[in-house]
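Record 1 of the preview.
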Amino acid sequence: MRALVTVTHPRQNSLTHAVMNRFVEGLQQNGHEVDLLDLHRDGFNPVYTLEDDRDWINPDKVHGPEIRKEMDRILAADTLVFVFPLWGYSVPAMLKGYLDKVWNMGMFEKMNAKKVLWICLAGGEQAHMDKYKREETLAHYLNILISGYARVKESRVELLKGTLHQSEEHVIGLLERAYRLGCEYE
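->
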């Protein structure tokens, strides 16, 4: 299986990147091929422009080279994996811009065989997430509103909680969970 893994965090030494690295190790251990997109390091421009908006409803729209390149990467992948922190109880602006620009009308009829895995790092503990229904809200947003709209075959969210309370033991547990997710991903 070929996985397009997209990571969103400006710091290379972040827990988000460490989780992504361990997940990728697991995928590779499982025999999967990985195409890695680091939205920050690779210089993706998330700003939705007038050109992006022009004729947006046309599935045959001719997109510029940056967007076409990312569309082709999606088409070449069997599965799409996103690794990102929960910021403002949503995806980071960089990832939202990517989704707005690349998951466009021209992709929707072509994504119905794709699987999507959203690996989200959340600072809150389980009690906090439960109190405000963060997990349910995020799962609905990503699995139904985003992935459903794009007509993907299957979408699920893996939430790694308590990332602000980074005891060494907790971080090791999160990294091990990311590795296991990669090893078991089908």
